[in-house]
Specification:
- This protein has 2 helices and 13 strands; from the N terminus they run E-E-E-E-E-E-E-H-E-H-E-E-E-E-E.
- It is mainly beta.
- It has one domain.
- Strands 4, 5, 7, 8, 10 and 13 form a 6-stranded mixed β-sheet that branches.
């Protein structure tokens, strides 16, 4: 059995992680983004004066703790319910599909940086129509289930998928990254000026409840996007690696009109 501990960002040394949901987009029949995008709660655009990644990034556990605490919020304090700062919520209709879009920032196309990452990680999307400003991470992640019977039963697990959608990349002008080069040659840059010359990643979701029924018009659906990206540190001969957890969240809403 793996020995598992949780560490904060600073302990991981030179790891540079900074991924959050950049946009929520409706998709057309070909799976391409369409219409006006929506944004996470408390969104700060990259062009804002004095912008830093921490404006949008939420890393758990929170420093100085080395372990998840039951008091840890699911959402960054600036991403509490209703705090739409520099971008509106996404408006959708019953049955629409939604793409939660983010940059891979080299976590896919530079798999050896940082070392000891077996993959680019897993993404979980939780949904609720009963959000609370004090929603706790440990009460939701790994607790809410696809059928809605887990945890406090206020929400459910809407989707679980790889961080890598198989198409996205951070453009590499040197062509040293085989993954980035191949994907650029096959798929090309993203369809919007905002993401060119990169191609953003996306987590696709359907606006259906835990029973597979479309949410009705008038529903405001809160979504919690969780990215788990652990590091496996090799142990001594004959011992299991130490697992160092890193988890990032983004919180957002979709208005079904």
């Amino acid at each position: 059995m793996f020995f598992k501990i949780i560490v904060v960002f600073g302990i991981l040394g030179q790891i540079s992680c900074h991924t959050w949901i950049e946009q929520l987009s409706l998709v057309d029949q070909d799976g391409q983004p369409t219409g006006d995008p929506g944004f996470i709660r408390g969104y700060v655009p990259r062009i804002a004066p004095n912008f830093i990644d921490d404006d949008n990034t939420n890393l758990l556990p929170q420093a100085p703790s080395l372990t998840f605490q039951d008091s840890d919020w699911m959402c960054k304090p600036t991403q509490v319910k209703g705090n739409q700062t520099n971008g509106a919520v996404l408006n959708a209709q019953q049955g629409d599909r939604v793409l939660l879009r983010y940059l891979e920032n080299g976590h896919i196309t530079q798999p050896s940086i940082p070392p000891n990452k077996p993959s680019s990680g897993q993404v979980f999307v939780y949904a609720t129509t009963q959000p609370q400003d004090n929603d706790k991470f440990t009460a939701i992640h790994g607790q809410w289930t696809p059928d809605g019977t887990g945890g406090d039963q206020r929400g459910f697990l809407l989707n679980t998928t790889s961080f890598d959608d198989g198409r996205c990349f951070q453009f590499d002008p040197t062509r040293h990254s085989e993954i980035a080069t191949n994907r650029n040659d096959v798929f090309g840059p993203g369809p919007s000026i905002t993401e060119t010359p990169n191609r953003w990643c996306g987590t696709m979701i359907s606006l259906d409840d835990e029973f597979g029924n479309p949410f009705p018009a008038g529903t405001v659906l809160s979504l919690y996007w969780v990215w788990d990206w652990p590091t496996y540190v090799p142990g001594n001969a004959g011992t299991s690696p130490t697992i160092l957890e890193q988890t990032y969240t983004s919180c957002m809403d979709v208005a079904i009109v």
